[in-house]
Amino acid sequence: MTNPSLLILPGDGIGPEVMAEVRKIIDWFGAKRGIVFDVSEDLVGGAAYDLHGTPLHDDTMAKAQAADAVLLGAVGGPKYDVLDFSVKPERGLLRLRKEMDLFSNLRPAQCFDALADFSSLKKDVVAGLDIMIVRELTSGVYFGEPRGIFKEGNERVGINTQRYTESEIARVARSAFELAMRRDKKLCSMEKANVMESGILWREVVTEVGKDYPEVELSHMYADAGAMQLTRWPKQFDVIVTDNLFGDLLSDLAAMLTGSLGMLPSASLGAPMANGRPKALYEPVHGSAPDIAGQGKANPIACILSFAMALRYSFDQGEEAARLEAAIEKVLADGARTADLMGPDGGTPVSTSGMGDAILAA
Ligand code: ATP
Ligand code: MG
After folding, report:
1. What ipTM was assigned to the predicted interfaces of this complex?
2. Is 340 a catalytic residue?
3. Annotated binding site for NAD(+)
4. Which residues form the Isopropylmalate dehydrogenase-like domain (predicted)?
5. Structure confidence by residue, pLDDT tens digits, 182-240
6. pTM for the full model?
7. Does the beta carbon of 302 sit less than 6 angstroms from any atom of ligand 1?
């Protein structure tokens, strides 16, 4: 039997720093729990541009297609701002998402008890919060045609088109129902069927797919009402499925219920591969954070939690993922804080590697 394969793309800025902590944890799983990955590492973003003149080499793209999962750090940085759009670091990430056809973007909003004071909301509203937003990632208003800035009479008009086919809605709906089955069996679909045809179709198709999941309690909500409910009482939700644009807004909103950017993982999933698991790219929500890069200040938890998602969704190791999350919970409860998790009078922060070591020890 061959070991499951994991392609690691540390990228730019704090990407390599936080990924180094994940590497320690991967090694620990091999040494202590006998869970061995076939790990390879490659370049993406500015790091790839510096060596190859392109933010994603074709060989790297091929490796990503062949891997059981890809774990990415972050791309970009001020050094690359002057580059032509076609070779910008972000284009490397966009190419991965596009060619792997990753249509389902999972953004958990999970509040560790020790950090509940960090939320902008009251503690009892967020303590213990654990919800998942599934955002459609490859279609909708970001891609629909016609699009552009056109001349209309003697003024210009900017046009974007919200467009969804039944199959595009059905596949993301299915991935959300599958997720709900593994969690609390509750799914809320959000659109604006009151004012948008794509929303009417969205609601119809999600309802139809739901017939295959009679155990899942399905509800529908207009996305604006959803935004309101997410801030009023977010614990009423388990899994939320929504389109590309609403998902962009709602997942950022939900994320900030829980505190720092340094804590937020994500997964982007595509169609099932031969092994039955979806094509998958895992990455922290944060960017390359050039303001703190190279200083050992970055919080590695978002990237470590992204690896936990990989354990759960790509490698059938849900219990090991929960064990890793519990270690993070414990370290936070014991008081370890990177600088991003501290108030102005917080005391002495731990470094990136200090946090990684504490999680390993726990
Ligand atoms: P991008 O365009 O790549 O998404 P961005 O402009 O949204 O980048 P980030 O790079 O995510 O920004 O950083 C935003 C702020 O959050 C910065 O001040 C950064 O230092 C901080 N930050 C981001 N990630 C972390 C982290 N892992 N640990 C600590 N601070 C972080
Ligand atoms: Mg950003």
Report:
1. 0.93
2. no
3. 77-90, 287-299
4. 5-359
5. 999 999 999 999 999 999 999 999 999 999 999 999 999 999 999 999 999 999 999 99
6. 0.93
7. yes
